[in-house]
Structures are given as structure tokens and as C-alpha cells.
Design goal:
With 142 residues, this protein is an alpha+beta fold. Strands 1-2-3-5-4 form a five-stranded antiparallel sheet, covered by helices on one side. The longest helix has 22 residues. The structure holds guanosine-5'-monophosphate.
């Protein structure tokens, strides 16, 4: 946590700034996004103070993983959305503005929700094998 700087989300979790809270447990805190892309747009945070998903402890990650399906179910049921996106912006150039890990649950309706370009390339087998080699050798415990 050495270079972690407190964010507005830490103040929300601490109750210093109001929010529309959806859920909390020992590991997780969830509330409605103040600038929703659609009705029910919800932010799900670990209480752990980390900027990026890849920095989370196993405990915090497990807590997020446990809470996420039930929160997706609840948001889907409450809004009547048939579909939804779960999104993590990790890093400034990926669109992250608040530097405390958070997942967006964004219900999808015909005219609202998350829109993205999907500029798919083609996977080359040789490059793929080299790549998986590098990825596998970089898989470490947190
Ligand atoms: P990011 O771009 O970092 O993935 O998303 C940050 C999100 O936090 C944005 O969707 C923004 O609307 C939301 N947000 C920023 N400040 C506040 C706040 O004070 N309260 C709430 N509820 N949401 C916020």
C-alpha cells in the first residue's frame, strides 16, 4: 500500500461522504454510481485500499468474487434488465479515474448501458504459444 493515496471512495466507505449504499460485508462495499450509464449502475469495491485489481490480496479478491454474483443478481432483478456488463477500468489509460479498485455493474437496456468498440484481431498460433509461455511464467501469488 506504499504509494496508495486516499480517494473519495475511502471517504464514502468511512461514511464521511454520503452514498446510496446497496450492500456491505467485511470485505466489500457497494453503492450506486453518481453518474450512471443506466438505471442501477452499481460500483462494487473491496474495502482493501489498493488502486488496481492486480494488487489485491487473495482475501480481498475472494470477498469480491463471493459478493459479485449476488449483487449482479440483485441489480438484474431490481431493474428488470436482461443483460449487464461488469467492467473494471484498471489504469488511467483504461479509463480509471478513481484510484481505488472498483467494479462497475452496468445493466443493459436497449438505449442505455455500456457501449464499447470491439476491434477484434486474429490470433496467430506461434505468437499465442510464445505469449502463453510468458504469461504462465509470470503467474505469481499475491
Ligand atoms: P472509473 O472511471 O474510475 O472506473 O469510475 C469511477 C466512477 O465513480 C464513475 O462512474 C463516477 O461516476 C463514479 N463516482 C465518482 N465520484 C463519485 C461519488 O462521489 N459518488 C458516487 N456514488 N460515484 C462516484
Amino acid at each position: 500500500m506504499s504509494d496508495y493515496q486516499e480517494t473519495i471512495f475511502d471517504r464514502i466507505i468511512a461514511g464521511e461522504i454520503p452514498c446510496h449504499k446497496v450492500y456491505e460485508d467485511e470485505q466489500v462495499f457497494a453503492f450506486l454510481d453518481i453518474g450512471p450509464l443506466s438505471e442501477g449502475h452499481t460500483l462494487v469495491l473491496p474495502r482493501e485500499k489498493k488502486a488496481f485489481l492486480h494488487e489485491l490480496s487473495e482475501e480481498a479478491a475472494a470477498g469480491l468474487g463471493r459478493a459479485l454474483p449476488k449483487l449482479c443478481r440483485a441489480v438484474k432483478e431490481a431493474t428488470g434488465a436482461e443483460a449487464y456488463n461488469v467492467l473494471v477500468n484498471s489504469g488511467e489509460s483504461a479509463g480509471q479515474v478513481v484510484m481505488h479498485v472498483h467494479l462497475h455493474i452496468i445493466p443493459k437496456f436497449p438505449d442505455t448501458g455500456f457501449k464499447m468498440g470491439w476491434n477484434a484481431g486474429k490470433l496467430d498460433d506461434e505468437r499465442a504459444e510464445r505469449l502463453v509461455g510468458r504469461i504462465r511464467s509470470n503467474i505469481t501469488e499475491s
